[in-house]
Amino acid sequence: MAGVLLLYRRLPWDASMTDPHEFLKSWVRDRVQETPYRNKAEARRLTYECRKAADRAGANWFAVIKAAGGDVEGYVMTRLNRAADHEAGRG
Questions:
Q1: Predicted model pTM
Q2: Could you read off the pLDDT of 34-64 as tens digits, one per residue?
């Protein structure tokens, strides 16, 4: 039953969203939380999850990469570091 309910769960972004910039910005905003500074493993994991979400949403992964400036993992790492700075009162 949980699998059926999952199909009706509202996604944090519009699944029909075609703008890769908006998809990436929205996805990262909803998922990035404060972690230890320069957490490469978390950036890698989130990048993998972002790619799966992009596929499910019908977003072109290469357009998402371009929206991230060519490096989705680096984009995610920057957002993780900003969250860590904010939490530590440095940002």
A1: 0.69
A2: 677 778 999 999 999 999 999 999 999 999 9
Residue extents of the structural domains in the chain: 18-88
Give the Cα separation of 60 and 9 in Å (integer). Answer: 22
Provide DSSP, 13-58. S-TT---HHHHHHHHHHHH----STT-HHHHHHHHHHHHHHHHHHT
> 25: how many CB neighbours lie within 10 A of its CB?
16
Residue with tokens 């957490």: 39
